[in-house]
Amino acid sequence: VQLQESGPGLVKPSQTLSLTCTVSVGSITTNYYYWNWIRQPPGKGLEWMGTIAYSGVTYLSPSLKSRTSISRDNAKNTVWLQMNSLEPEDTAVYYCHAEVWDLYSGTYYWGQGTQVTVSS
Q1: Helix, strand or coil for residue 66?
Q2: How far is C-alpha 16 from the geometric centre of its chain's CA atoms?
Q3: What are the strands, taking DSSP E only, across 41-111?
Q4: Is there a smaller number of Cβ atoms within 10 Å at the N or the C end of the chain?
Q5: For the segment 25-54, what is each residue's pLDDT rounded down to a tens digit?
Q6: What is the rounded distance in angstroms from the CA atom of residue 36 to the CA atom of residue 38?
Q7: How many CA atoms lie within 13 A of 46 on its CB side?
Q8: What sign for the dihedral angle of Cα 26, 27, 28, 31?
Q9: How many angstroms separate the CA atoms of 18 and 73, rounded?
């Protein structure tokens, strides 16, 4: 599984962020594949933002649920993150992350991350 994030880099406060995760070497609809968005603000730890499963079911962090959505395009093998009402505190490196599960264990894959800065 190979993951590549892309996005605007710089966003103004109150605007909406849209990030794309392009998946190669694997299909986003393959059973037991889970696609996550995780971010890391400067000087802080990793924060799970949400997941879209192979089935299409989404799970969102309660703290971000009100302004975050995750969706996908099966034909393009792409997962999207959208977050509105951005604040400077949303400045972070945003990662696309994949979990691949079998009966016994999971394997994890990371994209290289994309820096998002929220500033006027």
Answers
A1: helix
A2: 15
A3: 47-53, 58-60, 68-73, 78-83, 92-101, 106-110
A4: C
A5: 778 889 999 999 999 999 999 999 999 999
A6: 6
A7: 10
A8: negative
A9: 14
